[in-house]
């Protein structure tokens, strides 16, 4: 049995994705800053018969993130699938003309240093398995910069470039890196962007391994 590791565990998309991969037979490692949130999520997954465990870490603290992923693999088994989908903070989204160089420190740490740390933590285990999947989840500003959300637009673009390079570099090793773009809000009643629909889409990306960038729905005009 291999492990699905979710960086940015929460009650919406995170829980739905954990449930989808868990029902497929993977153990689940949930990573979040909130131990209380993790306790609730693991209890809910346990009621569905899914083996899950929480590990506290802050993606802005790369040492804690690194330690959490190593602990998850040691406790639950090798990590075959990594999903990086923490929700950016509201203060990352200042208008472009109001954004200073210092304002970019946290968004870039969140969307670049965090993913690099996570990937480097799980890659040795994936290489030992001979397979793996790296899933990156981003909003529409990753491909269409939004002048009112400068921090995330810049940081998501950098994360996209990193993920694309991983896609090309790791393909010969049977490790698939892919990105899912979610242009709109994630809502329970959304046809293409409900947590459950997106969770199934992410699982399909893992299984089918067909290309790098995927869209939950078309970008609005």
TrEMBL record:
UniProt xrefs under InterPro entries: NAD(P)-bd_dom_sf, SDR_fam
SUPFAM superfamilies documented for this protein: NAD(P)-binding Rossmann-fold domains
A Pfam family hit: adh_short
Name this protein carries in UniProt: SDR family NAD(P)-dependent oxidoreductase
């Amino acid at each position: 049995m291999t492990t699905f590791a979710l960086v940015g565990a929460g009650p919406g998309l995170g829980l739905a994705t954990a449930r989808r991969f868990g029902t497929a037979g993977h153990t689940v490692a949930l990573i979040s800053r909130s131990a209380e949130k993790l306790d609730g999520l693991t209890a809910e997954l346990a009621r569905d018969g899914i083996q899950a465990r929480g590990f506290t870490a802050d993606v802005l603290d790369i040492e804690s993130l690194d330690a959490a992923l190593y602990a998850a693999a040691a406790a639950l088994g090798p990590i075959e699938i990594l999903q990086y989908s923490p929700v950016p903070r509201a203060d990352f989204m200042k208008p472009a003309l109001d954004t200073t160089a210092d304002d970019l420190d946290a968004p870039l740490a969140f969307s670049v240093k965090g993913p690099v740390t996570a990937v480097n933590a799980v890659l040795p285990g994936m290489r030992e398995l001979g397979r793996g999947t790296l899933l990156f989840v981003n909003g529409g500003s990753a491909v269409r910069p939004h002048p009112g959300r400068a921090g995330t637009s810049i940081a998501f673009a950098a994360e996209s470039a990193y993920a694309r390079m991983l896609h090309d570099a790791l393909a010969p090793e049977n490790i698939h890196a892919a990105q899912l773009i979610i242009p709109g809000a994630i809502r329970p009643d959304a046809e293409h962007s409900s947590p459950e629909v997106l969770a199934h889409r992410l699982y399909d990306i893992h299984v089918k391994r067909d290309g790098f960038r995927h869209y939950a729905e078309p970008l609005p005009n």
